[in-house]
Amino acid sequence: MSIQVKNIHKQFGDFTALDDISLDFPSGELVALLGPSGCGKTTLLRIIAGLEQADAGQVLLDGEDASSTHVRERQVGFVFQHYALFKHMTVFDNVAFGMRMKPRGQRPSEAKIRDKVHELLKLVQLDWLADRFPSQLSGGQRQRIALARALAVEPRVLLLDEPFGALDAKVRKELRRWLRKLHDELHITSIFVTHDQEEALEVADRVVLMDHGKVEQIGTPEEVYRHPATPFVYGFLGSVNLFHGRVDGESVRVGDDTLAHQTSDLAHGAEVVAFARPHELDIDTDPASTAGIAARINRILAFGVTARVELDGINGSTGQHFEVEITRQRVLDLGLTDGQDVRLVPSRLKVFEKDGATG
Ligand code: ATP
C-alpha cells in the first residue's frame, strides 16, 4: 500500500509540531523518519496511523483519503519502543490476540490461528519461545514478538516507532539487519522512526530528515550522506568540520587562510560556512605550503588501521577544533606528533551560504 502525506500541519497550543509536511511513501519501501528529539517524527507517524488528528492536510492510503477511515480499518501494524506485550499471556497468546479479537464473521478458527502463530514465530525465528511469558524474554526477543504480533493481522503498512530504542547497542545492530532481511521477504510498506543516523542509513531504502517540524531532505542513504541539502543534514549525518569564511574569487577565505573551491555560483564577498568530513581532510606538513587551513595537532588517536587526529585552529581559525581521519600508516609516514603545526587540505568541500543558498 502506498502512503501520501499532503500539507500536514499540527499544532499543540502555540507550538507547531508539524509545519506543512508533504511526503510520498511508495508501496513496498522501508523508509526511515530521522531527526533529533522533538522534531515531530512520532507525531507524523501517529497521524499516518490515525491515532492523532492533523489540524490541516491529508493522509492518502493507496490514493484514497484516509481521514474518515478508523484506525482499525487502516490495516496498520504498530511496534513501539516499549511495546507492552500482555504480561499475563504467553508469547503464543500475545501473537494470537489480534486474530482472536476479530469480529465473529472474520475470526479464523483456532486451528488456523495456531498455524498462523507458528508461521509468524518461525518468521521472527522464535518458534521455540511460544509457551514463555514476556518476563522470561530478552528485550530483543520481546521486540521480535511485538513485530510478529503486529504482522498477525496482515497489515498493509507497518509503523515502527524507535522499535530498538530501548535495547543495547549490540542487540540493536543485530535487529537492524534482521529487520532489513525480514522486509526484503515481506515487502510491506514500512515507516520507522529513529534518531540514530547509523540505523537509518543502514536499514532504510530512503531517509526522511526532519528538524523542527519540517522536512529538510528526502533521499536514499547514499544521497543524503553524500549530498546533504542543508547544513543541518550535513551536521546530523556524521562528524563534520566547519570553516567560517567569505567567498574570494575562486576560493573561500578563512581569516588569513584560503580554501580552494569552485564558487562561481556564489557572490564575491558572500559569507559562507564550508563543511568537510574528517576523512575528506588531509594533512600537509610542508612548512613552505600555504594551501588549506593552519592548525596545531592536539592529540593523535591511532588504535586500528585508521587514526583520528584532533587539531586546534591557529591564525584565522583560532578557537576552532578540527578532526581528521587518515590511515595510521599516513600518520607514521608524515611523522605527525602532538603540538606540530600543519595545514589541513580538504579533498572535498561543501559550501553553504549563511542565508541557506549552497555552492
Ligand atoms: P522523540 O525522538 O523525542 O520521540 P519526536 O521527533 O518523535 O521526538 P514528537 O513526539 O513528534 O517528537 O513531538 C514533537 C513535539 O511536539 C515535541 O516538542 C513534543 O513535546 C510536542 N508534543 C507531542 N505531543 C504533544 C501533546 N500531546 N501535547 C503537547 N505537545 C506535544
UniProtKB/TrEMBL annotation:
Calcium recorded as keyword: no
One GO cellular component term noted in the UniProt record for this chain: ATP-binding cassette (ABC) transporter complex
Record key words, sorted: ATP-binding, Cell membrane, Membrane, Nucleotide-binding, Sulfate transport, Translocase, Transport
Organism domain of life: Bacteria
SUPFAM superfamilies linked: MOP-like, P-loop containing nucleoside triphosphate hydrolases
Domain ABC transporter: 3-237
GO molecular function ontology, one term from the record: ABC-type sulfate transporter activity
SMART domains tied to this protein: AAA (SM00382)
Matches recorded under InterPro entries: AAA+_ATPase (IPR003593), ABC_SmlMolc_Importer (IPR050093), ABC_transporter-like_ATP-bd (IPR003439), ABC_transporter-like_CS (IPR017871), CysA_C (IPR041193), Mo/tungstate-bd_C_term_dom (IPR008995), P-loop_NTPase (IPR027417), Sulph_transpt1 (IPR005666)
One Pfam family here: TOBE_3
Keyword Membrane: yes
PANTHER family in alphabetical order: SPERMIDINE/PUTRESCINE IMPORT ATP-BINDING PROTEIN POTA (PTHR42781), SPERMIDINE_PUTRESCINE IMPORT ATP-BINDING PROTEIN POTA (PTHR42781:SF4)
Name of this chain's protein: Sulfate transport system ATP-binding protein
